[in-house]
Design brief:
The protein is α/β, with parallel strands linked by helices. The strands form five sheets. It has a six-stranded mixed β-sheet. It has a six-stranded mixed β-sheet with strand order 7-8-9-12-14-13. A three-stranded parallel β-sheet has the order 17-18-19, covered by helices on one side. α1 runs parallel beside α2 and α6 packs across α7. The longest helix is centred in the N-terminal third of the chain and has 18 residues. The model has no long low-confidence stretch (mean pLDDT 91).
């Protein structure tokens, strides 16, 4: 049986003012084309289908177009809700969708019943586990749950999997030891109390993970994050985004292959002085990419962004890296780690060659509190 693994589509996402919808549509068409070419049996989508709980009309239409195209090719779709998705909204109409081979799971009640697909060898059992929080499992099982690892383990126990069968799991969780990137900043405690060990998944032949945007295997090659559909932050600039093609044969016999996406606009960082970058633009064949520009000029260039946009139209960020920038960063760090009173004390000491007296500190503290109340 052949299936493809995707996750973290984040349909409707806006990155630094740029809508990603057309970029997403462009890549999803590659998924459809590859699915037809490879004659896959199923597509697995491991959560964060949308970027927001209340997706835009355009994002919903894009998902509708995508699922309809796959249904026309008789390709099954197995899809779970991630932490960015509204579980209720995402699984609206799920009973009707199943007639077309689209299986959407947002509730824990559905997670314990596998979707069974068959090939020439026999049955493959797909378990669809949406994003889990301890409180969800506590309410579902009506018992105390101590943290994320126990929540996931208890849900897997409720599945009662047969270890002699071929079992596949879709899950949307943070696995201990995984690499993260900046576009996951919305995750509440990435790598903290929400982390679960990869040993939770020992009973499954393949685990299709979502939640983290960096493509990576966890513990073994068949437990992996496919990564996000596109590069959504500068920290992902050097990553190779891809769809994961899996062929599962007899139990214990499996092949994995990553098929890279060809983005409509890549995301990259370019550095140099203003004059050098303007000159390089004449030979830069990727000027339409999303770019983060770092200028090395010691002095501010008037209207630098507007002028650079004439040759690099998709500038996501422009910043300077020079002595002034280094000083500003140091000042920013100092402001972040010192209280208002400590900063005033430091300034007073520098100007008067003596520290504040205790009575002065008390008076200043009262004044600062009064100012805060009036703001």
């Amino acid at each position: 049986m052949k299936f493809m693994h995707l996750a973290d589509l984040h349909l409707g996402k806006i990155v630094r003012g740029f809508s990603m919808l057309e970029d997403q549509r462009y890549v999803l068409q590659q998924v459809i084309d590859t699915a037809k070419q490879e004659q896959i049996d199923a597509l697995l989508i491991a959560g964060d289908v949308y970027d927001k709980h209340f997706p835009s009309e355009e994002a919903v239409a894009l998902l509708d177009d995508f699922l309809s195209a796959l249904a026309q090719e008789n390709i099954k779709v197995l899809l779970i809700a991630g932490n960015h998705d509204s579980r209720i909204r995402l699984q609206f109409g799920r009973r009707s969708f199943r007639k077309d081979g689209v299986y959407i799971v947002g509730s824990l009640q559905e997670a314990c019943r596998p979707v069974v697909l068959s090939d020439a060898i026999g049955d493959v059992y797909f378990y669809l586990l949406p994003f889990v929080k301890p409180v969800y499992v506590r309410n579902f099982l009506n018992q105390e749950i101590d943290g994320y690892p126990e929540a996931v383990q208890m849900m897997i126990q409720e599945m009662h999997i047969d270890l002699n069968k071929r079992n596949v799991l879709l899950a949307h969780q943070f696995v201990l030891g995984a690499d993260t990137c900046d576009s996951e900043s919305a995750i509440s405690s990435v790598g903290g109390l929400d982390a679960i060990p990869s040993s939770c998944f020992e009973g499954f032949d393949y685990v299709a993970l979502g939640h983290l945007h960096s493509p990576q295997a966890m513990g073994r090659e068949s437990v992996r994050y496919s990564g996000s559909l596109l590069k959504y932050s500068l920290s992902e600039a050097h990553q190779k985004k891809a769809m994961v093609l899996v062929e599962i044969k007899e139990k214990g016999n499996m092949t994995l292959n990553q098929i890279p996406f060809r983005p409509l606009h890549d995301l990259r960082e370019i550095k140099g002085t203003y004059d050098a970058l303007m000159q390089e633009a004449t030979i830069d064949l990727q000027k339409e990419d999303y770019v983060h520009i770092t200028l090395l000029d010691e002095h501010m260039v008037p209207d630098a962004k507007a002028r650079l946009q004439t040759v690099y139209p998709h500038i996501m960020e422009l910043r300077y890296e020079n002595l002034r920038f280094a000083y500003q960063q140091e000042l920013k760090r100092s402001l972040e780690v010192h209280s208002d009173l400590e900063l005033i004390e430091e300034l007073y000491t520098l100007q008067n060659n003596q520290p504040l007296e205790e009575e002065q500190k008390i008076l200043l503290n009262e004044l600062l509190e009064k100012i805060k109340e009036e703001l």
